[in-house]
Amino acid sequence: MRKLSVCVLFGGVSPEHEVSLRSAESVLNNLDTEKYNIFPVGIKKDGDWVLYGGKDYSLLPSGQWEACPKNRRAAISPVRGQGLLSFEGDCVVREHIDVVFPVLHGENGEDGSMQGLLQIAGLPYVGPHVAASAAAMDKCMTKLVAEQAHVRQAAWQLVTREELQCNEEAAMDAVEAKFSYPVFVKPAGTGSSVGVSKVKNREKLSEALHRAAKFDAKVMVEEFINGREVEVAVLGNETPAASICGEIEAGAEFYDYDAKYISDCAKLYIPARISDNAAEQVRDTAVRVYTALGCQGLSRVDFFVTYDGEEVVFNEINTIPGFTSISMYPKLFEASGIPYAQLLDRLLELALQAK
C-alpha cells in the first residue's frame, strides 16, 4: 500500500507557539513512518515557514530546530494540486501532500485562518473546518451557540477594549452589578489559559481586564463556578463519540498556563472523581456542544461539575487540543482503549473522510 504523505504544521504566530512545539514533538515521534511520509513544517514567530530537514524532533521545544542546516523555506500553495512547496536556491521543489495535521494552537492556527488556507488549497486536514474553528476559538461565539443548544454554562459578560479605553469605570461598574467576586477574566480568542485571571476585587479586575485586552479586543468576564474541572475528548465526524471523563486538580489558584505546562503542581484523575450519572451527562453534553458548533475530527470539551449537587456546567471547547506527553486529549482516549499512535491514525482517517 502506498504511504500517505502527511504534512505536520507546528509553531505559528501565536502566544501559544511554544505549546505547539511540544505538541508537535509528541505527534511527530508517534506517527508511524512505515505508513506515512512525513513533512514537518514549522512556522516561526516572525511568520516564516520552514520545512524542517532534521529527524531529531526533541529539538522542537527549545527552538533549536530552526538552526538545522537542511531546513528549507516552504509554503503551502493555495493553488489546488500544488501541495507543499519548498525553496532551494532558485529551485522550487513540489511535494504531493495527502493530508495535513495542523498541530497549531490559538491565533492563526486554530481560529479558522489556517483551515481557510487548507480549504482553498484543496488539502484534507485534521480537525474542524473553518466556521466551527472560528466559532469555537471565540469564547463569546461559543457561548451564544451553547445557549441556543440549551446547554447550562457559566453566566458571562462581554467587555470590549474600546469600552475599557473610553470608560473603564463604567465597564467595571457593569461587571460588579452582574457578578459577585471572584470572577474569571479571559481574552475571547486565546487558549492554554493565556491572559486568563481569577479576580477577587475591583483593583485586580482593572488589571485583569487590561491584561486580557492585550491579547484580544473582546474580553469575557465569567462567573465563578465552585466545582471540579472535568474534561472529555470527542472524536469523529458525523457520529462523534466521547471518551472517558478526566479531572484536573490544578494545585494552584486555577489551571493556568504555568500549571498546564511549566510546574508539576497539577494532578490528573482518569476517570474523574464524579458519579456515573454526572460522567454520562458530561459526555452527552460534550457531543451536543461539538455537534452544535459543527465540529469534526476532534475537540476537547471542558466542564465544571459542582461540588454541591454535581451540576454539569459547560466551560469551553478546544478544537486543536494539546498533544504533549501530558495532555489530556490523548490520555483520555488511551484510557478509553485507543493508544496514542492509533489515535493519530484515526484522526488522519477522519480528515480524509471529512466532507
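the 2nd protein, sequnce then structure:
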Amino acid sequence: MILPDGAMELIINLGDPQKLCALTAPTRHTTFRQSWVSGERTEPIVIDESGYVHLVGVRLRAGGAWPFLGIPLREFTDQVVELEAILGPEISDLRYQLGEARDDDARFDLVEAWLAQRVRARAQPTRSVSYALRMIHGGAGEVRIGRIADEIGISHKHLLREFDRCVGLTPKLLARLCAFQRVIRSIGQKAEVNWAATSSMCGYYDQAHLINEFRAFSGLTPATYLTKRGPFLNYLQVD
C-alpha cells in the first residue's frame, strides 16, 4: 500500500507486468505492462509487486508534471493511466532505449535528457500557482485559500481553475494532504508518539481532527499505521 503524498509518478517498466489492486478487494486488479502515469492521489493505492521488479520512475511534485505532459492534470487525479495512450511511440522508444542501456547511470541520463527535451516545448505553471504552492508547502496546515488568491490578485475561481490544470488537486485539498504528510514525517520511526503534540505541531485543531484526516488519506487510524509502518514511511505491507 502506497499512501498519497502530493506527487505524481511516471513509471517505465523494464521487468514483469505490475498489478494495481482494488483498494477494497485486492484480488481484483488491473495489469500494467510497459509504462504508466500515476496522478495526484487522495487515497492509497495497492500494488502487487510479484515477479521480477525493475522500474525506472520519475517523481514529480505538485505542479511538476504540467510542463512535461501539457494535459490538464485533473484528468489524472486518482487515476493510473498507460503512458502509451498519452505519449504514443515516444514513450515506447524511450522504454526500448532504457532496456538497452548499460547501467542505471546511463538510464538516468536518458530519462533526464528526455524530460529536458519535453519541458522546453511547454509552459511552466503560472506565477499564481507557483506562489500558492510555496505558501501551501511552507504553511503549518492552516492555509486560507481566499487570502492567497487576494494576495496574488486573482479571483478564488480563477485560482481553482489554474490548480485544476497545473496541479490536479484543489488548493485546499493539497493543503490537507501536505498536513497529513507532515504528520507522517513527524512520526518517522518513533516507537511512541505524543498525538496531542503532533496534532498541534502539524496544524490540526485537535487530536480528533488529526485522526479524521489520517483516516481520510490512509484508510487507517494513526495507531494502526504504526503497526504497519516499514522502513519507507509511505509504503506499507498489506497482508
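The chain has eleven helices and seven strands. Residues 19 and 135 are 36 Å apart (CA to CA).
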